[in-house]
Write a structure and sequence with these properties.
Blueprint: H1 22-36, H2 40-54, H3 56-63, H4 67-73, H5 82-91
Helix pairs in contact: 1-2
């Protein structure tokens, strides 16, 4: 079989592969917040991406929330409580700041 006749192997793209440093994670979150508007589920999904890059088990331990609950809350399909978002942000070693635009 020639190279041109071989089936193309593809895999699903996962942003987590590109979020290896805290700086990359911070820049990703900042960029997504700028683009999100008032889409809270999108921000939750972004936090879920960062959590998966860091390790969901450790995040569960740090927040006191069950892993399954975190996966559900940070899936992008739900709007988690603000309390959950704050716990996740703090457990990730980040802080939420506000500025006037």
């Amino acid at each position: 079989m020639d190279e041109k006749d071989k089936p193309l192997k593809i895999r699903k793209w996962d942003v987590v592969e590109y979020l290896q440093s805290e700086e990359e994670q911070q820049l990703y979150l900042e960029a997504c917040i700028e683009e999100a508007g008032d889409d809270a589920a999108f921000i939750a999904k972004v936090l879920g991406d960062i959590a998966r890059a860091r390790g969901m088990t450790q995040l569960a331990n740090d927040t006191g929330l069950a892993r399954e609950s975190l996966y559900k809350a940070l899936s992008g399909e739900n709007n988690p409580s603000f309390g959950t978002i704050l716990k996740v942000i703090h457990a990730l070693g980040m802080k939420l700041t506000v500025s006037h635009v």
